[in-house]
Amino acid sequence: MKRSNEEIRQRREEILHYLLENGKTEIKKLSQYFQVSEMTIRRDCAKLAEMGQITQSFGIVECYQEVEGQKNDPLEQIKLALAKESARHVKNGDTLFINTSSTATASLQFLKDTSIILMTNNLAVAKIEHHPDSSIILSGGEIRYSKQALTGDIAVDSFAHARSDISIIGCDGVDLTTGITTSVFHEAKINSKIIENSSTLIVVCDYRKIGHQANFTIGKIEDIDILITDSYADEKVLTALEKMGIQIIQVQV
């Protein structure tokens, strides 16, 4: 019986974690550990190598190492590419909402020359350089230090009384059945209000999130105007989303 895309995705994530913990490993050993055929592991590793997350040679695989003290993290490179693309859609004078997503936050790095009104529940924006004419509005609310997030009714109410020209949000899943989802309960209502009060909604999510379902639904698929993802995302899901009228942008990384 064919495995679901989610099972394949999860196994590949587990392979990465295994390699990070154990270092260089033989294909045969991975096959035994994950209780699948060597052919299956070879396919998984070929895909991970194509994505720049591992190297493989003569049946030996390992994760990329840090080079000259700098992290060579392909996933971070993907997120940065998504952030850069999302920033292209923001114009001078726009009112922009972002949530606490690291990818959405990274878009601000590419808006230093753009004057905007930024509204967010993300305390991390205070550390980012902005255009001198930009205005930064923090939602208020209870601080959750683990994510530098403002949460609670005050934060929700702030977004309830505002409307954006454009919003850039990250999420934990975009699925045809469950819609846009997050795993963070404390931010679910805030994200829903951001979506509700957005004139144009851009969702940024890497290949891992496409077709994935997280615990809490924050919006419908139909709420998305533009979905920005990478070239490794599930093509079947993207095709179905495109047929629903969503603009799909895949960045090449």
Any overview of this molecule?
The chain is an alpha/beta fold and 253 residues long. The chain has 2 domains: 5-63, Arc Repressor Mutant, subunit A (Orthogonal Bundle); 74-251, Rossmann fold (3-Layer(aba) Sandwich). 34% of the residues lie in helices and 23% in strands. It contains 8 helices and 15 strands. It has helices spanning 5-22, 27-34, 38-50, 74-87, 102-106, 153-160, 185-196, 235-243, and strands at 25-26, 54-57, 60-63, 95-98, 117-120, 135-138, 142-144, 149-151, 166-170, 173-175, 179-182, 201-204, 216-219, 226-230, 247-251. It has a 7-stranded parallel sheet with strand order 6-5-4-9-12-14-15, with helices on both faces. Strands 1-3-2 form a 3-stranded antiparallel sheet. A 3-stranded antiparallel sheet has the order 10-11-13. Helix 2 (27-34) packs across helix 3 and helix 6 runs parallel beside helix 7. The model is unreliable at 66-70 (pLDDT under 50). GO terms for molecular function: DNA-binding transcription factor activity. Keywords: Transcription, Transcription regulation. This is HTH deoR-type domain-containing protein. It comes from Enterococcus columbae DSM 7374 = ATCC 51263. InterPro entries: Carb_Metab_HTH_regulators, DeoR-like_C, DeoR_HTH, NagB/RpiA_transferase-like, WH-like_DNA-bd_sf, WH_DNA-bd_sf.
